[in-house]
Each structure stands twice: as C-alpha cells, then as structure tokens.
Amino acid sequence: MIPPIKEVRLRSINRWLKDKGQTTQSGEQSPSAQDLDDQMIEAFEEQDDALMDRLMKANLWGTEDGLRQYRTEQMALWQEVCAEFLPTSGQD
Predict the structure, then answer these.
(1) What ranges do the domains of the chain cover?
(2) What distance in Å separates the CA atoms of residue 55 and residue 62, rounded to the nearest whole number?
(3) What is the tally of helices (H) and strands (E) in the chain?
(4) Rounded-to-integer distance, Cα 8 and Cα 2, Å
C-alpha cells in the first residue's frame, strides 16, 4: 500500500529524526514526527488527486493500463514526498 501504514511511517520519521540528532522520548511518538507525517500525507494526497485527474482526462482511469500507470506513478509520488520531507545527507 502506498503510502505505508501510519505506524511504519511514524517509525521511519522517528528514525530519520534520531539520525538528524533530534531525539524522541522513549516509547512515545514525537509531536514533530506526527506533524511531519501529517504534512507528508497532505502533500501526497494533493499530488495523488492531480494524478487521478490527469488519468481521467486521458481516459485511462478504470482501464488496466491506467491502473498500472497509476500504481507506478503513485510509488514515484511517495518517493518524491519522502525525498522532500525526509532528505538524506546527500540531499541536504
């Protein structure tokens, strides 16, 4: 499923925050992790809606080719969102 389930996203965000030196309290989700997750989901959903609109306008929505294209582009969208909000050291 794209994006991953919330628990997986929060665990990844907390790991990223820890790697960046922004430690979180043991056993609790960081408020900043939740905020980042909310922002990431909002950004993804906006782009996902635009993708669906584009496929509908191209009369691909509801077809096998459209579904394949949607899933592929949806994965790319999530990767872009992650790169934007959780940049790796090479992207700083």
Answers:
(1) 6-21+35-91
(2) 9
(3) 3, 0
(4) 11
